[in-house]
Amino acid sequence: MTEYVPPKVWSWEQPNGGQFASINRPIAGPTHDKRLPVGKLPFQLYSLATPNGQKVSIMFEELLAKGHSGAEYDAWPIRIGDGDQFGSGFVEINPNSKIPALVDRSGPEPIRVFESGAILVHLAEKFGEFLPASGPERAETLSWLFWQMGSAPFLGGGFGHFFAYAPEKMEYPINRYAMEAKRQLDVLNRRLADNEFIAGPDYTIADIAIWPWVSRYEWQTIDLKEYPNVRRWYTTIARRPAVQKGYKVPKDVGEIPIPA
């Protein structure tokens, strides 16, 4: 294999990125005109059953399970492999062209919300659920929520990409990101040694944000037996009916994996 020599200034000369080459590009904005469907329910969710997308659909199902009928939502698939996220309608909601994106139509004027963490906070505050209103409990919950938002690029965009998708397998990036993924799991394992849930004794949006990424443990070739506290927490959440429903929205991706 010819050694790659990085240029002094990188420029986009040809599609790259293996199976994602058709949707990778160094510019933003829409590539085509496409209006988004709009249903009649209070919330319009544009998403896919990926870890980031599942956070929001699980949140909606948890709210509905608590009896919040106002949390009813329409879920529309955005097929990122086909480039749906670059349609003009989607870019109007999320200029960063990433799922999930939400339009809150429950009030007099539609409100767009993008980035999964922002959507979770928006819904938690709107319905008064899964996020303490104030004090150290709120700070702890938000700290772990944003810990996940900062950690996801290592698990998905880093380890997941180089391990599963990169057209050429390279030892350095795989080792680099595998080490970081395992370190993050150790962070969780230590935290959960003395806490039932991530932020303390109560189930919060921190758990809802982190759990879908851990659910990819088989794909990431991670043995949860190495992290017994994470395994206990993961299995407890996996058995929640709302999680089982939200995991499959807007597309049935099969049953939740449960460690033996």
Description:
The protein has helices at 51-65, 88-93, 116-127, 135-165, 171-192, 205-214, 228-238, 241-246; strands spanning 43-47, 73-77, 101-104, 111-114. By secondary structure, it is an alpha+beta fold. The protein has a domain at 135-246: Glutathione S-transferase Yfyf (Class Pi), Chain A, domain 2 (Up-down Bundle), CATH 1.20.1050. The protein has a four-stranded mixed β-sheet, with helices on one face. The longest helix is centred in the middle third of the chain and has 31 residues, at 135-165. The model has no long low-confidence stretch (mean pLDDT 92).
What is the residue-mean pLDDT, rounded to a whole number?
A: 92
Count the helices. How many? Answer: 8
What separation lies between the terminal Cα atoms?
41 Å
The CATH topology label of the domain at 135-246 is Glutathione S-transferase Yfyf (Class Pi), Chain A, domain 2
Overall, the morphology is globular
SSE succession: EHEHEEHHHHHH
Question: What is the CATH class name of the domain at 135-246?
Answer: Mainly Alpha
The largest sheet, given as strand count, sense and whether it forms a barrel, is:
4 strands, mixed
State which percent range the strand residues make up.
5-15%
Helix content: 40-55%
Our Rg estimate from Cα atoms comes to 19 Å
- Uncertain runs are none
Secondary structure category: alpha+beta
- Proper CATH architecture of the domain at 135-246: Up-down Bundle
Strand runs, count: 4
Question: Strand arrangement, largest sheet?
Answer: 2-1-3-4
